[in-house]
Design a protein that fits this description.
The structure holds three protein chains of three kinds. Chain A is an all-alpha fold. Chain A has twelve helices and no strands. By secondary structure, chain B is an alpha+beta fold. In chain B, helix 10 runs antiparallel to helix 12 and helix 15 packs antiparallel against helix 16. In chain B, strand 4 and strand 5 form a beta hairpin. Chain B starts with 6 loop residues before the first helix and ends with a strand. Chain C is mainly alpha-helical. Chain C contains 13 helices and two strands; from the N terminus they run ααααββααααααααα. In chain C, helix 5 packs antiparallel against helix 10. The chains are: A mainly alpha, B alpha+beta, C mainly alpha. The interface between B and C is large, with 59 and 53 residues.
């Protein structure tokens, strides 16, 4: 666990290489990276594997897997190809995961940075808002937002981002509070650097590592939240998403379990890969497991 | 002529028919608790305030109607005789004597008169339109009621409506109170074979045997419990685990219905729903100039493979629709109408001719479709619609909302191009499907013609049929309406589907009337 | 003469004062948010009834005060709430307070069992994993934790129902009790416990994995600190070391999480309560959104806010207690 030597040993190798060396020490994290790479690859090649609309009728309804080579993982109730659903679903899941996370982190960084940097009444007001968001059960808020906005994928993603920003906001705030009185910030302030510039140029880069790690958690939660919405039949039916596939597959869970189980496994593996990635990043970015 | 796969339906119907005849041979056992699955919670249990099959499913055992319907026609319940004056302005009912409310007070004409004027005419959905011309109800003696109308009321229509819209409530518990907030709306007092015991919100409603029931020796059951289970897969599991004895109104997924139909612990079938069939629809917003073109609507119909949808989505438990009156409409139904067999090539040709060629993006035009959020097969039907339209190069975007969002989007804001859902046929076209076709429906009223379709010929036909007193002429008029609807296609009544029950074979005498789930179950018994 | 006020009371009072603006913010925000949603409770009710005519719909709207401008409705609601009157639920035709109290017990029971199982099992497994770090045991526990975390609760629920209820017939499919069995005393307790096994498992696993990972990490971190090394050097036994020195310190972040997560668990219980037809607040919240039952949803959010404030206060106390012991150590 003592990476101290590696860190100090001259000559210092490029940062990225150090990062990679630390990352690959965690074998589980490597496994996570591999799954993640596969999911990304599936998302990228979906159009090549199946150039058509993944929601079209591709074969006889409820063909089991490995029977018809045109639909190797079988078809669902409306004859849609499960494999093509999995490939296109990877796109949707990643898209929801990444965009919702960006939304959450963007809101979180702005609120957390303002709150932590300025303190005082700004902090008071922003923290009350944060507490309000934390107090409302996030899934209930999500359901309400989806009820208002409708089940379009853009809105679902935005709504997931909106219910997920409080934790990063608190983390950024804590980082800012500990960093704002450091020497380099004082120095910048004395040089007349603007607040915006101090916040985004000086402090934020130093506050980012824990946020990057936490991003993997939000990504994982986003995918789980989308699938729970789809399970309650509030997903966007215009796209092949894993959540929608499970939601509809459960009607045939007993007679054609593969319709729900295959996308279920896809979700489990993808969420697992995000968590493992997160741990790897954590090890690589905070070699001594330093917290706070 | 009809090519749909109905072997399965027939096989199941005869199987359950056999099962019930076999049961009749056995001696009924007394006692036991029947547990019934309800998919959605019914909050108001007063059938004179809420006309819906879900309410009848519970309250029908506690509160009885004046007249019920059996396979042999109308049967007396609280009314024993009925007749109409020649001008159709007065309908006279003889009421059953010696019947007591559950609190011991006698049932009389006062109760009927009070309920008819205060609830059926003023407060009961659907009924308030039906009874709009009801002027008064006279009580020449405690067991005779005379309904006085300002315009002729066809006795056929009156009788067809009574089993659902004719539940008297006890006047002495409602008079002088705020009827909508009366405590007995959620704890009903009736004359039925079962007495209300308790209603645990979110869990169950319980009713117990009425020892003082007017049919001597009935009921057989000690108790009925209605359990609310929202999730269809969980409901199927509860049936299989023996925790629930019956699930009606397609309370489990179509796939599970098909699976359980092969399980010899259950009777699965459509028997007992002859009065409660529904149409899965495709609805057009005629304000959209593309859809206002008849040729486009006809092309869309040709683009839908109804037989395939029946086979895959409804698992064979359905028939292709033939306009606004289903086969369950009896004499009012005809299949002598124009049809639109599946023919995508023809559909494409018609769309080309209508002036909508395929554009660079591969589509002719785009439609914003609102699917009704009624779950499972309604959702699949919407997704099938999208699939089928893509085949004839029409791009369909599904806009999913929850129920209030959907009802608002379609029926108030008219913010849609096409929509789908299902609509229940209530035994007579005058009180059900005609509202889809009649223009001038007030804005914001769900499940009425909010499609911007106005046809003066149709309006006149509907009005004439509604006040025609001669049953034969009336039937012929409805056939004409069907023909015109299938020509003009304001709405596609694509699939006629009955409801389906899954019933444990431990229950006997089940599904023995055409509106069984709404009926009183006085003769239902449980094998122990 | 001044009466000495116990510092804990002052602290409690300060927390309460801080909570008031947050709760007002939540209530007003939720009210306005719901008003943005298309359709109102009358639409939902009419939808449930299978339709109604225009006059009927109009009358219901007047009856429920929905014909008034939004700010009037908001003012009326907040004025009532100020006297702790939650109003009337037009969907359930009962006072909201009755509706809520009926459901609160089930939800508190489910949350309490889920969180305590997640908490105890999570920290136990986390501690074991950390003490045998990088061993096969650790790998197994950590992997399990990650899989628990990654499995959607509804997916797990469906699988459990299939296995334990349908195939094996050991556990009831759903509900909170066997209806019409009229159990009394211990039989009733056993009955309810049986009904809660699967929902508790489904709800607790994701939190179990949170606590497990957090505990493992904090035990590892604390294990490296000087005072633990000192204690170890002094020859303290492994068990004693674990309980007296490591656990206490490592529990701090876990306790914080517990406080923060209370409302998240209520959100998570929406899906679990729906599948297992448990008459709890989660399912009620979901139904209230879909039914646009404003008063009920507002009541739930209010209740939830109060609970969160109380739980956070309690965790603060617990935290302080754990902290002071550490000072002593």
């Amino acid at each position: 666990m003592t990476n101290l030597d590696a860190e100090l040993s001259p000559p210092e190798p490029p940062r990225l290489l150090v990062f990679w060396r630390r990352y690959k020490r965690n074998r589980a994290a490597l496994f996570g990276l591999a799954i993640f790479a596969i999911v990304v690859l599936m998302a990228l090649t979906a159009g090549i594997v199946d150039p058509g609309d993944p929601l079209r009728r591709a074969g006889a309804p409820l063909t089991p897997p490995f029977v018809d080579m045109a639909t190797p993982l079988g078809t669902d109730q409306l004859g849609r190809d499960v494999m093509s659903g999995i490939f296109y679903g990877a796109r949707i899941s990643l898209l929801i995961g990444v965009v919702a996370t960006l939304v959450a982190i963007a809101i979180g960084v702005v609120i957390g940075a303002l709150s932590g940097y300025f303190g005082g009444w700004v902090d008071d007001v922003l923290m009350r808002i944060t507490e309000a968001f934390q107090t409302i059960p996030n899934f209930v808020l999500l359901l309400t937002l989806v009820a208002i906005l409708g089940s379009k994928i853009e809105w679902i993603t935005l709504a997931i981002g909106i219910v997920s920003w409080t934790a990063p906001a608190r983390m950024v705030r804590a980082e800012f509070m500990s960093l704002r009185s450091r020497e380099f910030v004082d120095a910048a302030r004395n040089l007349g650097v603007s607040n915006t510039s101090i916040i985004f140029r000086e402090i934020l880069p130093n506050a980012l590592p824990p946020i990057v790690v936490y991003a993997s958690v939000i990504m994982a939660l986003s995918i789980l939240l989308e699938s729970a919405l789809a399970f309650l039949a509030l997903g966007d039916p215009n796209y092949a998403s894993w959540g929608n596939m499970i939601g509809q597959g459960r009607a045939v869970l007993r007679s054609a379990p593969y319709c729900a189980v295959i996308p279920g496994i896809a979700i489990v593996l993808t969420v697992l890969s995000f968590s493992l990635l997160g741990e790897g990043l954590n090890d690589a970015l905070n070699p001594r497991q330093k917290k706070q | 002529m009809m090519s749909y796969p109905r072997t399965l339906v027939l096989a199941l119907a005869s199987a359950s028919a056999l099962a019930s005849t076999a049961a009749l041979a056995e001696d009924p056992q007394k006692g036991g608790t029947a547990v019934i699955h309800m998919i959605s919670e019914q909050r108001i249990l007063n059938p004179a305030l809420r006309a819906s099959t879900g309410v009848y499913n519970i309250s029908g055992k506690i509160v009885e109607p004046l007249i019920d319907k059996s396979y042999d026609g109308y049967v007396p319940v609280l009314a024993t005789e009925w007749s109409s004056s020649d001008d159709g302005l007065h309908i006279t009912l003889k009421l059953r004597e010696g019947v007591n409310w559950h609190d011991g007070k006698p049932f009389t004409c006062d109760d009927v008169a009070f309920t008819a004027i205060e609830m059926w005419k003023k407060l009961l959905n659907y009924s308030s339109a039906l009874q709009a011309n009801l002027e008064s109800v006279d009580c020449p003696d405690p067991h005779t009621a005379v309904f006085n109308y300002s315009k002729p009321m066809p006795i056929d229509l009156f009788l067809a409506a009574m089993p659902d819209l004719g539940h008297p409530m006890p006047k002495h518990l409602y008079e002088g109170t705020d009827i909508l907030k009366n405590e007995h709306n959620t704890a009903p007092v009736g004359t039925g074979p079962f007495k209300f015991v308790e209603y645990e919100r979110g869990q169950y409603v319980m009713a117990e045997k009425n020892e003082d029931y007017w049919r001597k020796g009935y009921p057989y059951l000690d108790r009925i419990v209605w359990r609310f289970i929202k999730d269809k897969s969980a409901a199927a599991a509860a049936l299989e685990a023996g925790e629930v004895h019956e699930s009606g109104f397609i309370g489990v997924s179509m796939a599970d219905i098909e699976r359980l139909s092969k399980d010899d612990r259950f009777d699965v079938g459509t028997k007992g729903y002859e009065n409660n069939v529904a149409h899965s629809t495709v609805e057009f917003n005629h304000r959209n100039p593309i859809l206002a073109d008849l040729k486009v609507r006809q092309a869309i119909y040709h683009g839908l493979d109804i037989d395939y949808a029946i086979k895959t989505i409804m698992r064979g438990f359905a028939k292709p629709g033939r306009g606004p009156v289903p086969t369950a409409g009896g004499a009012n139904y005809t299949d002598d109408v124009k049809t639109y067999p599946y023919d995508p090539e023809l559909a494409k040709k018609m769309l080309d001719e209508a002036g909508y060629p395929v554009k660079d993006d591969g589509f002719r035009f785009h439609l914003r479709h609102r699917p009704a959020p009624w779950g499972e097969y309604t959702q699949l039907w919407a997704e099938y619609f999208r699939q089928a339209m893509a085949e004839i190069n029409i791009d369909v975007e599904l806009l999913t909302n929850d129920a209030p969002g959907f009802l608002n989007g379609v029926y108030r804001d008219h913010d849609f191009d096409t929509a789908n859902g299902w609509h229940q046929f209530r035994s007579d076209p005058a009180v059900s499907t005609m509202v889809w076709l009649r223009s001038g429906q007030p804005e914001g009223t769900p499940w009425t013609n909010q499609f911007g379709w106005k046809d003066e010929v149709m309006d006149k036909m509907i009005d004439d049929a509604a006040s025609e007193l001669d049953p034969e002429k009336r039937a012929e008029m409805y056939h004409e309406i069907q023909r015109r609807e299938m020509e003009e296609l304001p709405v596609i009544f694509a699939i006629e589907h009955p409801f389906i029950s899954v019933t444990s074979k431990k229950l006997h005498n089940h599904h023995n009337t055409p509106r069984w789930n709404s009926s009183s179950w006085y003769d239902l018994w449980l094998e122990q | 003469m001044k009466l000495p006020i116990p510092p804990i009371l002052i602290y409690a009072l300060r927390r309460l004062l801080q909570a008031v603006p947050v709760i007002i913010l939540i209530m007003v925000g939720t009210f306005l948010l719901l008003k943005l949603a298309p359709g109102d409770t009358v639409d939902a009710l009419v939808g449930d009834m299978g339709g109604a005519d225009a006059a009927f719909i109009e009358r219901l709207r007047v009856e429920y005060g929905l014909d008034q401008p939004v700010w009037v409705q908001l003012w009326r609601y907040m004025a009532k709430l100020a006297t702790f009157d939650f109003g009337w639920s037009f969907v359930y035709e009962q006072p909201v307070s009755t509706v809520l109290m009926d459901r609160l017990g089930t939800t508190l029971l489910l949350m309490a069992t889920s969180l305590s199982i997640a908490f105890t099992v999570g920290i136990a497994l986390g501690a074991i994993a950390a003490r045998r770090v990088y061993s096969a045991t650790d790998n197994l526990i950590s992997t399990l934790g990650l899989v628990f975390y990654a499995t959607p609760s509804f997916f797990l629920s469906l699988m459990m129902i299939y296995l334990f209820s349908v195939k094996l017939g050991w556990l009831p499919v759903g509900g909170i009790q066997t209806i019409a069995a009229f159990y009394k005393g211990w039989d009733h307790v056993v009955d309810v416990a049986l009904h809660l096994i699967m929902p508790t498992a489904a709800l607790s696993l994701i939190y179990l994995s949170f606590y497990l990972r957090l505990m493992r990490a904090s035990v590892l971190e604390v294990g490296d600190l000087d005072y633990v090394r000192t204690a170890r050097a002094k020859g303290a036994g492994e068990m004693r070391l674990m309980i007296h020195h490591i656990m206490r310190n490592a529990l701090l972040p876990v306790v914080t999480l517990l406080g923060l997560q209370f409302s998240t668990v209520l959100g998570g219980s929406v899906v679990v309560e729906t599948i297992f037809t448990l008459p709890g607040l989660g399912q009620l919240a979901y139904q209230s959104v879909v039914q646009r039952d404003m008063n009920t949803l507002m009541g739930i959010i209010f209740l939830c806010s109060i609970i969160v404030v109380v739980v956070n206060f309690l965790t603060d106390l617990l935290y302080a207690r754990l902290d002071s012991r550490i000072e002593l150590a």
